[in-house]
Amino acid sequence: QVQLVESGGGLVQAGDSLRLSCTASGFTWGPYCIGWFRQAPGKEREGVSCINGEGNTYYADSVKGRFTISRDIAENTVYLQMDNLKPEDTAVYYCATGDGGAWLGYVEADNWGQGTQVTVSS
C-alpha cells in the first residue's frame, strides 16, 4: 500500500519561493507518475506537475516556468520547487500517484497524501 507524506507548505508573499516535499512508502518507480495536484476554495482540483520513473515531467500551463519538479529515487521523495509564487497559487497541494492521464483529468489518481496548505499573500 502506497503512503504519501507531504511537507513544506506555508504562508508567503507574492514573488517568494517554497519547496514542497512528498515522501512515498510502498511506491515503485515505473511508468506511473508521482506529483502534485492542488485545489483552491471553490475551484476544481488541478493537476499541477508530475514526474515518472523515466524522468518525464508534466506541468500545468499555469505553473510552467515557475515550478520545477524533481525527485530523489533513493529516498523515494519528490520535490516541487515553486518560485515567483502568485496569490492565485494559493491552494491545498496534494501529493498523488497514478497514471499520467490523471494530471490531465482523464482518470483518477490512485493514492493521495493528506495535503499541505500554500497561501500566497499579495
Structure description:
- It is a single chain.
- With 122 residues, this protein is mainly β.
- The protein is 0% helix and 51% strand.
- It has no helices and 11 strands.
- The chain has strands at residues 3-7, 10-13, 18-25, 33-39, 46-52, 57-59, 67-72, 77-82, 91-98, 111-112, 116-121.
- Strands 2, 4, 5, 6, 9, 10 and 11 form a 7-stranded mixed β-sheet that branches.
- A hairpin with a 6-residue loop joins strand 4 (33-39) and strand 5 (46-52).
- It is globular, with a radius of gyration of 13 Å.
- The chain starts with a strand and ends with a strand.
- The model has no long low-confidence stretch (mean pLDDT 95).
What layout of secondary structure does this protein have?
Blueprint: E1 3-7, E2 10-13, E3 18-25, E4 33-39, E5 46-52, E6 57-59, E7 67-72, E8 77-82, E9 91-98, E10 111-112, E11 116-121
Parallel strand pairs: 2-11
Antiparallel strand pairs: 1-3, 3-8, 4-5, 4-9, 5-6, 7-8, 9-10, 9-11
Gross morphology: globular
**CA-atom Rg in angstroms:** 13 Å
Q: Beta-strand percentage? A: over 45%
Distance from N terminus to C terminus (CA atoms, Å) equals: 40 Å
Which structural class best describes the helix and strand composition?
A: mainly beta
What is the tally of helical segments? 0
Average pLDDT, rounded to a whole number, is 95
Which spans have pLDDT < 50 for at least 5 consecutive residues? none
Sheet of most strands: 7 strands, mixed
The tally of beta strands, per DSSP, is 11
User: Which bin fits the share of residues in helices?
Assistant: under 10%
Order of helices and strands: EEEEEEEEEEE
